[in-house]
Design goal:
The chain is mainly β. About 5% of the residues lie in helices and about 35% in strands. It starts with a strand and ends in a 13-residue tail after the last strand. It comes from Thermus thermophilus (strain ATCC 27634 / DSM 579 / HB8).
Length: about 100
C-alpha cells in the first residue's frame, strides 16, 4: 500500500496519510486536517473518502494573501484586520463567502 494524499473539504489543503496508517484505518475513524484543524470522518476505505464532522464546521477559515497559510478566525474578527500567525502579514479577510444562514 502506498501513501495517499487527501484534500480537506474545509480548507482545500492536501494532507498525506502514510501507508502504515492506512493499514489501520477503519470506517468511522476521525482524522484531523494538518492545515486547518478540521475533523474529517472516514466514510469509505476503497476509495478513501472523508467528510467533515460537526467540529470542523464551527469556524471561518482564511488563507493569508501573502504566504497562503490557512488559519481559523472567530466571529469577533469579522470586519477587523487580522494578523497571519505564520508570517505576520496584516489584512482584512473577505467574509462574503460566509453563507447568510450559517450560525455562530
Amino acid at each position: 500500500m502506498e501513501d495517499l494524499e487527501i484534500v480537506c473539504p474545509v480548507c482545500g489543503e492536501a494532507s498525506l496519510v502514510l501507508a502504515e496508517d492506512l493499514e489501520d484505518l477503519e470506517v468511522g475513524d476521525v482524522l484531523e486536517c494538518e492545515a486547518c484543524g478540521a475533523f474529517l470522518e472516514v466514510v469509505s476505505l476503497d476509495p478513501l473518502e472523508v467528510e467533515v464532522t460537526e467540529e470542523g464546521l464551527e469556524g471561518f477559515f482564511v488563507d493569508c494573501p501573502r504566504c497562503g497559510y490557512t488559519f481559523e478566525l472567530s466571529e469577533e474578527d469579522q470586519g477587523r484586520e487580522v494578523e497571519c500567525p505564520e508570517c505576520g502579514f496584516r489584512f482584512v479577510p473577505d467574509w462574503s463567502d460566509l453563507e447568510e444562514d450559517e450560525e455562530w
